[in-house]
Amino acid sequence: MTALALDAATIVPTVRRRPMNPSMVIGTLVIALVGFIAIFAPWIVHIDPNFQDLTKTSVPPAWLVGGSSDHVLGTDHLGRDMFARILFGSRIAAIVGLSVVLIGGSIGVTLGLLAGYVGGWVDDLIGRIVDVQLAFPFILLAVALVAVLGSSVTTVIAVLGITSWVQYVRVVRAETKALRQRDFIMAAHATGATNARIIFMHILPNIASVVIVLATFEVARAIILESALSFLGLGVPQAIPSWGAMLADGRQFLDTAWWIGTFPGLAIMVTVLGVNIFGDGLRDYVDPRSRGR
Amino acid sequence: MRFRPIALAVALLVSLSALPLRAADLTVTISQGVDADTLSPIRTTNTPTFNVVGQIYEQLAVPEGPGNMSPGLATSWKRIAPTVFEFKLRKNVKFSNGDPFTSDDVRFTVEKIKDPAYKSTQGPYYREVVKIETPDPYTVRFTTATPQALFPALRQRSYIVDAKYWRAHDNGYLEEHPIGTGPYVLKSWRKDEAVELEVNPNYWGPQPPIKHIVFKPIPDAASRVAALRTNESDIITNVPPQYVSTLVSGKTTEMASVKSVRILYIAFNTLQPGPQQNKLVRQALNYALDVPSIIKNVLGGRAYPVPSVIPTNFFGFDPHAAGYTHDVAKAKALLAKAGYPDGKGIDLVLNSPNGRYNRDKEICEAVAGQLALVGVHVTVKTNEWTNYTTQIAKKQVGPMYMLGWGVINYDADGVVTGILTADAPNSAWVNPEFDKTVFAARAELDTTKREALYAKAQAIAHDDAPWLFLFQFEDLYAMSKRITWQPRGDESIVAKLIKPR
Amino acid sequence: MLAFLVRRLIGSIAVLAGVAAVVFFILHLTGDPAAIMIAPDATKDEIATFRHAQGFDRPLVIQFASYAGGLLHGDIGKSLRHETPALALVLERLPATMELAFFALGVMILVAIPAGVVSALRPNSALDWFVRIFALIGQSAPTYWIGLMFILLFGVGLGWLPVSGIGGLRHLILPGLTLGFFSAAKVMRLTRASMLETLGTDYLRTAAAKGLAPIRVIVNHALRNAWLPIVTAVGIEFGTLLSGAIITESIFAWPGIGRLAVQAVADRDFPVVEGVVIVTATIFVLINVLVDVTYVALDPRIRYE
Known about the structure:
The structure holds 3 protein chains of 3 kinds.
Chain A: H1 8-11, H2 22-44, H3 82-118, H4 120-135, H5 138-149, H6 153-180, H7 183-190, H8 195-231, H9 243-250, H10 259-286
Chain B: H1 3-24, E1 27-31, H2 47-53, E2 61-65, E3 68-71, E4 74-81, E5 84-89, H3 103-114, E6 129-136, E7 139-144, H4 163-168, H5 171-176, E8 184-190, E9 194-199, E10 212-215, H6 221-229, E11 235-236, H7 244-248, E12 253-268, H8 279-288, H9 291-298, E13 303-305, H10 328-338, E14 347-353, H11 360-372, E15 377-383, H12 385-393, E16 400-406, H13 412-419, H14 432-443, H15 447-464, E17 467-480, E18 483-484, E19 499-500
Parallel strand pairs in B: 1-10, 1-11, 14-15, 14-16
Antiparallel strand pairs in B: 2-3, 4-5, 5-7, 6-7, 8-9, 9-10, 11-17, 12-16, 12-17, 13-17, 18-19
Helix pairs in contact in B: 8-10, 14-15
Chain C: H1 2-29, H2 33-37, H3 44-54, H4 60-72, H5 86-121, H6 126-140, H7 143-157, H8 169-199, H9 202-209, H10 214-244, H11 246-251, H12 257-267, H13 270-298
């Protein structure tokens, strides 16, 4: 019996299986680490990140003069343990990063595909909505939403999600438009493929690589913007530790207690790096055309 | 050869005379957080704007302390009847355009402020004035509707404008072209960038030592500090306490501080249902607080505890007034008595502004932490400022909220009628006994009796505890070592007193 | 092409109208300026009188009608804070922000794109690693942090550059670099990714095999194909720069529209916010049309019906 070898290569014509590359592995590890910390923080460290000890404010990290082993990374200006706050802060980073990419990405890619593929008045309409959205000062949107919804994690996600989707639309639209006119798409039409099939089988995989790189930017941008919102006083409530808010607070202590801002900054940097490396690796995995770096 | 000693002497004289000349050409740059809204001194009520226009215009008199005013455009003032106040004006004063200063200018100014078409936000400053008379060019009489302890025009910052000049120009022009009697005149104003002032050569008083003043607003505190360190600014305001050590040890910088007229407090919204409506709970929470610890650890020691509702350096402050000490046992006992043993059943939200006052949200966090130690659960919620103040005025913020309040005339009346009486827009407390006492004090013309009334009011407030009593700020300023200057508790900057070192 | 442009024009006017309407309603959602502006101890009656004088107590529809009518004459009313025409205020500040934005744009085009190209050509070289690390830092540090670092290093520490205010070129450098940092990092990375992709295509290897000189291969073929997402990104980033200069302008005390917008939103100075939004929207619309025209000029395969 000759059984048809049903492997991924036959079912999904334009995606080829490749071995996992080192970037994907490292990236995945970092993201998994952050995710692990976010979920298991209370079990890793038994200190309450919100507990203040006003007699122990701005204690330096353990390896410096004045530090103690009670507070490995020192304490902040209200006497809260830095290590605990960094660990618990990963939760906001994870939630914000994920939600914004999912919300912004799905809306943005869908609308971009529509605009680029269908063209005509649909394209015009979507383009105009994007323009109206982009014309609004971010801060006005943020202040309005906070005034109406109150300041909470949901509000922050809403604000960041609204400003994120537009980043995808233009690029996806342009790439879709360009692809649509290409020969192999014309050929697919000629053989009677439905629009849906063309979009999913041919266009999506070809824009995947750019969308992925864009998505990794958006995760980074979401985490950074969350910090900017905290800097402007519109971020997550005080009771929830977030790297962005800690970074904003730490700015004024650069001379006197540098660890308050530096450690959250490092945490953000490592996370962003991990996401980017993952993105690079994923792009290589998915994209048949990129060979070698 | 004979010319040699003469040449030497001349050279010496020239070089000596060059020294004070350089000092006089000094330009002093002052950086506040915001630019002036306008250069009309009678339209808005913001301190930063007053600080700019206050160099160009002058007031009738300036408060220096409780019951102590220094003469400005008025040389004396007295009450000639319970509701009539007479001011004698300074003679031979001219506006910088040559117009003579007379009582007509005072009347014009007050009428303009009260004119709704001009849209001044200073209207309330003169709310009690019903008649203004100018019997001669150097006398002004104000008549109030009811007897007042405090004099109109001295209760708040009130600058006098040139009536003739104002009648000749439209409002838009007057926003940007100020003419006053003060020690400086406007050279240029580039909005949000810089206001440049230079000395008024025809000023009636002594010529100021500094000839050029620039107000350059820098919104961000860290950037203000940096600008001082790079010598781009010479005086900066609102310095957060955490920069003190850097500035004190700086080679070119030094700090100056002054007890502020502004107090910070946490109000209970007793108009909303909840445990805060129970007096025992309010007292208990006051005993649970350790205010000195907060001052020391969050503000670096830069504040003064206030036992009751009146700032310690104000007229009406009772030095024997009881305050709340830090007594955890007593707090717990009171909570139990109120029906909340170990704080069970109390879950409060503490509303805080976000960066409006020095370390405001950190102070709220610290308060929440201290209240947690007696078992009371408090969540801190930060608010955007404009929303916050609007909602407070509608009494919709609660059950606890933090606010600051400053009164520039060092008199208790401005404090109690602004934030405590039942009809005050920012009050969320009702106590008829308190209201009766302070309204009587407002109309009481005998100072001793008035003081006694305020002492009584403070005792009532201590017992009924409408607030968590906190403190009076110490305002921190920093300046360049090339000048000497003393800050004022009412947050005003008097540029004519800045001297080169 | 002409029909397309006309359609775009009509669409743009619709956008501006939509923006103008939406901003009006969003603002009124956030509160009422009268209570905020008046003296803190004003009574309810005094606030009401003031509100009436400003016209805020009229029904919303009437206020909108008067706003819309004014717009058609190019008049958005007077700033509540300054009592001078709001549109003039905004246009006064616009050049300062444009200066910053163009500086940042220059950095993007003259530094970021070439860096991305070269980095793609020499993968895993020292330069490539430098570019990738720089892009990483650019993406993970918020603008206010970068601004502070620059101020402390180049201003306070080394004393090379001024840290606040507007002036000549020297005053432009630190805020311009701060503003452009994030965008430059993004463009650098996107250029590199896009170039790498193009370099890997068979089409390009054919061109190289045909014996074309490497520079020609790069410019004529690789860049030509990789440009699409790059131009799009630069177009978006420039627009983002204009409206996103808020934090940079606050930190460097730069008198631009970003700072004006922050202050106006905090003051609920409705006419000024409306002015900023409408002016910014107009610029966006123009940039969009420009970007679309660039597409057609650079890639004849994109046709417009």
